[in-house]
Amino acid sequence: MASTPAPKSCASCGREIQWRKKWEKNWDEVKYCSDACRKRGIRPVDEKLTRTIVELLDARAAAATVCPSEAARAVGGDDWRDLMEPARRAARRLVAAGEVEITQRGQVVDPSTAKGPIRIRKVR
Mind giving me the DSSP string for 17-59? Predict the structure, then answer.
């Protein structure tokens, strides 16, 4: 019996994609966790949020953290609240790339399942 392939991250939202039997023949081509993520893809604002998170972290001490709202405010101005979920998605993509960690109360958490306020910090 063949082993189950390792999970991978969604290209849009950064959440973990678990292998499913229906993807057996094309697992290597699976990039998105859902139809919504496939339709959304990566927009220019998503790329800007990702760059902004990295820039905010680069401007701080090595162990410092940022809130996704800081990136949302920097990119969205007065309409920043609409960018909160895109900022969280950007943080999850950075986790998948191995660049940052997502924390809650100072502890690293699984970005796919984290609920509530989060902080982002560089990988130590």
Answer: E---GGGTTTGGG---SSHHHHHH---HHHHHHHHHHHHHHHT
